[in-house]
Amino acid sequence: MMTTNAELQQRKLAVFARGQGNVYPVYVERAHNAEVWDVEGKRYIDLGTGIAVCNTGHAHPAVVAAATRQLEAFSHTCVMVNPYEVAVELAERLTRLAPGPSAKKALFVSTGAEAVENCVKIARAATGRRGVIAFTGGFHGRTNLAMGLTGKVAPYKATFGPFPADIYHAPFPMTSHGVSEQTSLSCLQHIFKSSIAAADVAAIIVEPIQGEGGFYAASPAFLQALRGLCDEHGILLILDEIQTGFGRTGRMFCAEYSGVEADLMTMAKGIAGGLPLAAVVGRSEIMDAAHVGGLGGTYGGSPVACAAALAVLDVIAEEQLIERAVAIGAEFSRALGALRTDFPELILEVRQVGAMIALELVHDGDASKPNTGLVQRLIQLAPEHGLILLSCGYYGNVIRFLPALTMDDTILAEALETFDVLFRRAAC
């Protein structure tokens, strides 16, 4: 007898903590590339890829084969006890790929939040300073320190405080909402005068493109200004590339658009094709600031995940997925731009860098009137149309598209046509 989505949802609700909710009561049985099938046999085009994790698509044969070979050899010894070649090779490749000319070293952990927290630990050890500055709308994870850095209260921070001290927030540039880059930079100066001296700040952390915040991009000029400010005051610059990395934005890492070299970078999500893995990569002398034994974790640098990550890097290169991200993004931008022409009162802006695409929805064409209702209708109706969609945004009014970079033209065209139908239905 077939198990239904409704039955599984009831079973989940009975045993999962309420806080770990799910967007869709759609239970996956199998997935391939850009398509997902649920336990009832219904097919969906996945436009979220597990929140930017499966850049190389679901169950890419090369990734599956690499993980399987490693699993058959051994699954775990702990890289801090008995290391293994796949971890060394991955560190070699990531340190070569990270933007900038400085010699670099790597650290492996399991999640993006761990990577963020280890950046802060390393920055404090390297500088002897305490303060960290983040930005409003930024998302850096769900552990306590990462929540403190995150610049959005609901649903991430509400009821979970207190958070660590010595964390400060500056407004992130959002031109469409009246926050200029100069305003943001001026606010950093205010923080230095009113809250913490620049000489006490260990690091500034910033996403080149905000993920949960709504896909607002930091311009090359803004990142260069942050680099200059950090250099002036001996502050370390942390670039959080968790959602923007591994070809997503039409570069291996989004920072390449600006030419800025980070002191420390976080990497996760698309790194290993769906297996849990994250990394910190940074300038060698900074990475070596922490004492031996001060960094690590039992599962960090899983050999199976490292093997998968090496295959992901091969696939990105061999299948030219960086270039493919640009082509996919251009198709989304064209189709969504045409939709905006028909609905200027509802669509404030289409934002697109590579295959990281956002649709910001408002009332009456007014940026100060976020249309969260329409976003929720689109999310709720998406399964009926065979789509998996994600929302985000500082104001909760953004649909974000994170398609697999391996999506072929036929599925891409179907996805865009289907979304057009869905939007017109939801907008009525």
Overall 3D form: globular
The first-level CATH class of the largest domain is given as Alpha Beta
CATH architecture of the largest domain: 3-Layer(aba) Sandwich
Strand content: 15-25%
CATH topology of the largest domain: Aspartate Aminotransferase, domain 2
Tally of helical runs: 13
Protein name: 4-aminobutyrate--2-oxoglutarate transaminase
Family: Belongs to the class-III pyridoxal-phosphate-dependent aminotransferase family.
GO molecular function: 4-aminobutyrate:2-oxoglutarate transaminase activity; identical protein binding; pyridoxal phosphate binding
Organism: Pseudidiomarina aestuarii
Throw out a few tags for this protein.
5-stranded antiparallel sheet; 2 domains; Aspartate Aminotransferase, domain 2; pyridoxal phosphate binding; 4-aminobutyrate--2-oxoglutarate transaminase; Aspartate Aminotransferase, domain 1; 428 residues; alpha/beta; 4-aminobutyrate:2-oxoglutarate transaminase activity; 13 helices; 7-stranded mixed sheet; 4NH2But_aminotransferase_bac; globular; PyrdxlP-dep_Trfase_small; single chain
